[in-house]
Prior knowledge:
Helices cover 29% and strands 16% of the residues. By secondary structure, it is of the alpha/beta class.
Amino acid sequence: MTDPTTSPLFTPITLGDVTLANRVVMAPMTRNRAGAGNVPTAMMVEYYLQRATGGLLITEGAQVVPEGQGYPGTPGIHSDTQVAGWRAVTDAVHAAGGRMALQLWHVGRISHPTLQPGGAAPVAPSAIRPAGQVFTGTGMQPFVTPRALETAEIPGVIAGFAAGARHAMAAGFDLVEIHAANGYLVDQFLRSGTNHRTDQYGGSLENRLRFLVEVVSAVAGAVGAGRVGVRLSPTSGFNDMSDADPVATFTAAAAALRPLGLAYLHVIEPIGESWRTPGPAGARITPALKAAFGGPLMANGGYGAESAAVVLGRGEADLVSFGTTFLANPDLPERLRSGAPLNAPDPASFYGGDARGYIDYPALAAV
């Protein structure tokens, strides 16, 4: 068993323009607790402050434009009041010695007219309705068929990501992360199952990569490539996603990002038991993406202290992000370092609600 006190998890690392105290990252997690106007609240300040000992805290997705919203109670990053709300969060975390990245989000087709300006249909690369239902302010509703973006509209969507990044810097964030995972807009352009376009943004793999590369390039141009990360989910079917050849698609995506000089690539892929006895080359996509990207890679997918240390030690990743484990354990780095027991997360309180299941998980000192 790996000795947690000597784990590479607890060594510093530099990502682009930012140096982190350790490699324990809080993964972005939607919590649906923003206030009126999708503005971060005082309770959100406390939530992130409690977790400031993580090397990096990546926020829940923040929609870069009003049309990018897909669920009630999600924060935005497109208005002055939202920027001010986030500034309260970053000021508190920085005062405690932490570092933060804002996740830039546009949900694309994973929305509903009740959440869209003027009750309009959500937008997407192609007019393909996802299977299933979406959570709205009036409960679960069936997904609708989205409206395919016109080619002439796409530069405006890309500009929205760049504006969101500039607002994030104004709000005091150290980094931004472009959400290109989990079946949202950028992912919808990437994958063959959701992109049936016939213009320069669809068809061939090169064309399907174009939106991702143009978004990332615009954001890097706005705030500097050394402050930009990208999140991908190559094997996930969440939000009714599919691709004819995910290995080819996502290896090409990582390679296309390589020359941009980004701070990091964040990859969601379940670790399972692969860390115990590594399988043959190609059994998991993450190592191939790291090789193609060439820069720091952040791994995500059900890691614990030992599996994270082993994967870092093998050079398959440089950092590890933790989702619900960090949600339930505000002092997760200390618990992982000391081998202390972990609080169990409460799924019933993940989305929406009050302080319960949000800022009331006990720290070790309280236990």
